[in-house]
# Entry
Amino acid sequence: RPSALQMTTDSGAKDPVKVGVIGCGRIGIVHLGAINKAPGVVPIVVSNPTISKAEDAAKTFGVSKFTSDAMEVIEDPEVDAVWICSPSQFHADQIKACAANGKHVFCEKPIATDLAETVEAINACNEAGVKLMIGLQRRFDPNFLRVKKAIEDKEVGDPIIIKTCSRDPAPPPYEYVKGGGGIFNDMAVHDLDMTRFLAGEDPLEILAVGSCHIDKSIEDLPGSEAFDTATCIVRYPGGVNAMVDVCRQSSYGYDQRAEVLGTKGMIATDNVYPNTAKIYRNDFTGNADMPFDFFLSRYFEAYVTETEAFCQSLVEDSAVPCTGIDGLIALVMSLAADKSAAEGRWVKFSEIIQQVYCASPTECSLLANSEMFPEGFKPSSSISELDKIVVPDVDQQKKSGSFLDKFKEIFIHESVTLFQTMRVWLGCVTIVAFEILGAHPAYLGGFITIGSLYVKSIATSPRDENHNIET
# Structure
């Protein structure tokens, strides 16, 4: 939808962005603080299941309304955009509800813990014409942004090796790790996304390993939940490799660094300290204090910047800087890392994407590898072709026209792609028809095969100069 902000005076003043925040835990409080610092933005309602937390947050930040019900935020007619800072398991449903109510959405990662639900949530926003921005706050950190600028400006030449590390000051409690999806999904995902951000390319494959060194109590947990330390190698086009290491404990504070080796030099970041004071003695030379020991302190400026960036996109009706696709690919990368560590091999990211089958943009499931579906039902074979299962977002639609226009362009110029695309849609229509009519499933494969041959004959038919099929 168009930006909710309207001109109110001839001098160019605009109404503020009216914001609702779902979740008043630690991350919700950080965003509320950031919203209060962002120009042209006003929080008008907050929610939290424990209403006393919502009330405290409202009093602290001068918010006029508070509630225990997230839907009251989503359905509030005054709200232009919603910040979703609730636990991960609620994200997808709340995103879909925002889309249904015409609200722009900022959502903390992940969009969902399930790949199919992630695609559904993104498509719900894209079909509704509302903006969706995902909170990958490290992309807005001034240190990492400076590395990105050095790559773009060729200050160190072409990238050869990218390195990132994330090491927490202390391990989280057992209860946090249990059911959290494992170290790749709840920790390394930020670093994996950062390698893609710095590389400026979509990755190809990954090799990951994990182990337990710090908290032996988690060793009884399933899969990568039993790891407190992990390492990944990610391959990018052009022979560029990225290396990521993560650990749940660092005795010297919160360790977050990046390094890029290029053909003409190297650029690296240091950790962020509370101050720049240094001590010089005969037995010690170095920083007077340890690095920040909490991610909210370390990245507060980044949270403010990403909040301002989303608000700016609403005010100017411009593209969001961190899209649903960025969140989807980050999840694909973490799931591939998990699979690699479990199976002890290189995993192509296409292996993860091919698990998703979408009967419609908002009805997806992890059934694409089932024998009941023909090969044509399987989606794209590479990350760069995710648009085959994801509807273009509202900003992309402005640039490239409607989905129908894009389909017409494919029909005229891409006969092979047409065959593949029509075969998928033919299959979808066939399954629905057979389900409604109650026909025996044995006829399904034959019908699709005959229909596919017909579509292929159309797609490969010679055409005249006006793209009409020659008789």
